[in-house]
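Take a look at my tokenised protein here and describe the backbone shape.
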Amino acid sequence: MLQNIRSFLDESALLRPRRFITAPGRVLLALAVLVCPGIHAADWPQFMGPNRDNICNEKNLNFDWPETGPPLLWSLNCGEGYSPPSIADGKLIHFDRIGDEELIGCFDPASGQLQWVYKYPTTYRDRYGYNGGPRSSPTIKDGRIYTFGAQSVLSCINLEDGSPIWQRKIGEEMDLPDNFFGNGLPAILHDDVLLLNVGGTDEGWILGIDKTNGETKWKHKTLGASYSSANLGTILGKTYAAFLVREGLRIIDPLTGEQSGKTYAFRSRINDSVNGATPLIIDNQIFLTAAYRTGAAMVEFDGTGLKEIWRDATAMLCHWNTPIYHQGAIYGSSGRHSANCTMRCIDAKTGRVLWDNQNPRELSRATLLMVDGHFIALGEYGQLAALEVNPFKYVVKSKVQTPLEYPAWAPPVVSDGRLFLRAEKRLICYDLRKK
């Protein structure tokens, strides 16, 4: 499969879609054109979905799976990386690495056919021996794609044909370190500003980048980067960005870079640790969670400062996955290691644990997506489960072992009734539509 992609990259002729997929039964064409009542095409244009809450609003999906799981539409061997795909305007954008190049590839989400590829060189090496591929999702908006690679290369390319618009080697410009695992954060877009938490050595930076030309609009100093993606939300009638950086939570005006109030301290006492989960903005409150004996906290923002509502060292300890809030409850995969990580539900008002599945082996560390009254949970060893959204007990509707191998760390994506799952070197597509 990698040879097919490589030969595609070496072609100088006009790009042509190529069919390099596997699908039992050869029913791709029929499935691609099937029209199902109650299903409407829904873009997933950025990390954590349209509203950055890991919630998909599609309805009438199938969660009664046979032992073999939902129908497998296609499977793609890909390069190194952990980046989940993004989908907009009928195009799936996939970010990975082959050899010494990072690649942004455009695929047909219905068939898996490759349409175009944009590539650029990279020399990143993971000092912990994981892999050298990108960690962050593409962001798609108004016909443009924005990616931030493992070596802190920020690219803006055309969605239609992959032609470059602008690119900045921010890592070289600012002499940024690789931190623990290279850059792992997507570029978050608000109006005409791209928000980047680039970090640093002794001090770090959050940048506001002009989306039209890539120039820096503002810089905000921090004490270091993290692996927690920023989140955007309307609080008291104004849009703010919540950044969980190395030392804690900061509330930033995304247009100016100005901070509101003091930093809320939230980090592990262990030096070799990271903040990985994205802050959840719930009205005028922000939920934080981290592993490494850190726990969880709910803080309230009144427009000028942050006030702690509750904090608990054991309630929820999300490592690199982000939990989901729904109707007063927070659901997530809690635990640092596979051997002790369980699915858990807590009360958002108090942090009290409402239930815990108490079975680390069922899903290990998992990522979640909520759609049509269910959670889709992807375990890091390729376990896939459909769970009821239930604040009273843990209920498994269906489960299956997918073809994905460890580590399957990218969160699931749903678009137009299709479920997209990414492991380290493989991307697969399931059909969740009711026939």
